[in-house]
Amino acid sequence: MATNAIDVKKYSPYRFSIEQYYRMAEVGLLAPDARTELIEGEICDMPPIGSRHAATVSWMHRQLLKAVGDRALVFEQSPLRLSRHSEPQPDLMLLRPRRDHYSEAHPTARDALLVIEVCDSSWLYDREVKMPLYAAYGVREAWLVDIGVKTLNCFGAPHGGAFVEQTSMQIPGSLAVPSLDVHVNLARLFSFADYSVS
């Protein structure tokens, strides 16, 4: 009995647009407190934010603010519009200053000077899905902070849909953000909780 080959184009999965994604939230198809992001047309669940993750993001936010001053805006867990079908929510972003502070439209890859993801249980997703996504859309630099194994991975020079430059370190020290010609003090990145508040 002969069977017909499946036409891949005819049966490819449906990809949601950003407009459809927002509409789904408006009409209640997505719960108001749902933690999701749109990745290449697919609605992806984001894991709950654990205390170590939240504390690391907060500490890095303060370090970035100290380093960049008024030269960039620091956004925390906000949308980054990469295409009609992709709007991830990085843990932190350094953005070009803009008069409206991005109140009229979400930032795009051109606006992002640095994107940072902090991960523990989501390491594989962040490394294998989100880092290539950022590279594919031309984000110039991305950091992946793995709090599980206390490692900072730096990705840069996007080319051909991948980051050409990749480095990994366990004691980052003072780390450069080349697009801003500033250094961020991350020497205590994996030990900030060991110090008393001053």
From TrEMBL:
<dbReference type="InterPro" id="IPR012296">
    <property type="entry name" value="Nuclease_put_TT1808"/>
</dbReference>
<dbReference type="InterPro" id="IPR011335">
    <property type="entry name" value="Restrct_endonuc-II-like"/>
</dbReference>
<protein>
    <recommendedName>
        <fullName>Putative restriction endonuclease domain-containing protein</fullName>
    </recommendedName>
</protein>
<dbReference type="Pfam" id="PF05685">
    <property type="entry name" value="Uma2"/>
</dbReference>
<dbReference type="InterPro" id="IPR008538">
    <property type="entry name" value="Uma2"/>
</dbReference>
<feature type="domain" description="Putative restriction endonuclease">
    <location>
        <begin position="19"/>
        <end position="168"/>
    </location>
</feature>
